C-alpha cells in the first residue's frame, strides 16, 4: 500500500498523479496508494452518507462529502477520507477544489488493504491535523470506533456495535442519531 519517498511530496506533486481509479494520498510527505474499495465498503459508506446528508438537510448545519474529496491538512499531507463533514461554522475551509484544514468529522470504512493505514497512520494524522472527531467503521464486526480529540490526541470514547443494537450520536452533529442495525443492514445477507 505505501511507497516510501526519499523526498517530501506536496499538494503540487499530488495534482500530477494519474486519474486511474486508485486513491492517492500524501501523509507527511510520503505517498500512499490504495485500490478502489469493494462494493460492501461502498454500500456502508453510502448508508452513512445518506444518514448524515439527511441530517444536514434537515438541520441546515453543514455539508457532507464522500471520497474522492481532497483534504489538505498541511503542505505535505493531502488525504481523501471516505466521508467528511464540515459544519456551517467552518464553511470557509471549503475551496473550489479541496477542503483546506480539518473537517469537523472524518469517517473511514475499513477494508483489508486500508485497515492499518486507517487505524494508525490516518488516525494519528487526523489528530495532529486538528480533526475533532474520527469514526472508524468496521464492516467485518459491524462496529464503529469513535475517537474524539482531547489535548491534541484522539481518545476512544466509544466502540459501538450493531450486535448490541446501539446508536451513534456526535457532538459534531447536534441532534443526529443513527441505528447501527439499520446502517449495517446494507451488508447483511
Describe the structure concisely for a colleague.
It contains four helices and 14 strands.
Helix content: 10-25%
Element string (H = helix, E = strand): EHEEHEEEEEEHEEEEEH
Instruction: Note the overall shape.
Output: globular
What do the pLDDT scores average to?
93
* Sheet with the most strands, sense and barrel status: 6 strands, mixed
The helix count comes to 4
* Count of beta strands: 14
Provide the β-strand percentage band: 25-35%
Distance between the ends: 30 Å
Output the structural class.
Answer: alpha+beta
Radius of gyration: 16 Å
Low-pLDDT windows of residues:
1-5
Instruction: Please give the order of strands in the largest beta sheet.
Output: 4-7-9-10-11-12
Describe the overall structure.
- The protein has 189 residues and is of the alpha+beta class.
- It is built from 4 helices and 14 strands.
- The protein is globular.
- Strand 2 (23-27) and strand 3 (30-34) form a beta hairpin.
- It starts with a strand and ends in a 5-residue tail after the last helix.
- Helix content is 23%, strand content 34%.
- The protein has helices spanning 11-14, 39-59, 115-128, 180-184; strands spanning 2-3, 23-27, 30-34, 62-66, 70-74, 77-79, 83-87, 98-100, 105-109, 133-138, 143-150, 153-161, 167-168, 178-179.
- The strands form 4 sheets. It has a 6-stranded mixed β-sheet, with helices on both faces.
Amino acid at each position: 500500500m505505501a511507497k516510501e519517498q526519499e523526498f517530501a511530496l506536496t499538494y503540487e506533486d499530488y495534482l500530477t498523479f494519474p486519474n486511474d481509479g486508485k486513491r492517492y494520498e500524501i501523509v507527511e510527505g510520503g505517498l500512499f496508494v490504495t485500490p478502489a474499495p469493494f462494493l460492501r465498503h461502498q454500500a456502508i459508506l453510502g448508508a452513512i452518507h445518506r444518514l448524515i446528508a439527511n441530517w444536514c438537510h434537515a438541520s441546515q448545519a453543514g455539508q457532507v462529502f464522500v471520497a474522492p474529496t481532497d483534504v489538505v491538512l498541511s503542505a505535505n499531507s493531502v488525504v481523501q477520507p471516505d466521508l467528511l463533514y464540515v459544519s456551517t461554522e467552518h464553511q470557509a475551509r471549503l475551496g473550489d477544489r479541496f477542503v483546506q484544514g480539518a473537517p469537523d468529522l472524518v469517517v473511514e470504512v475499513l477494508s483489508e488493504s486500508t485497515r492499518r493505514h486507517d487505524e494508525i497512520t490516518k488516525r494519528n494524522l487526523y489528530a495532529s491535523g486538528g480533526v475533532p472527531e474520527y469514526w472508524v467503521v468496521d464492516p467485518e464486526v459491524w462496529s464503529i470506533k469513535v475517537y474524539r480529540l482531547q489535548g491534541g490526541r484522539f481518545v476512544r470514547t466509544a466502540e459501538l456495535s450493531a450486535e448490541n443494537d446501539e446508536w451513534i450520536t456526535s457532538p459534531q452533529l447536534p441532534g443526529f442519531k443513527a441505528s447501527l442495525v439499520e446502517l449495517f443492514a446494507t451488508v447483511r445477507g
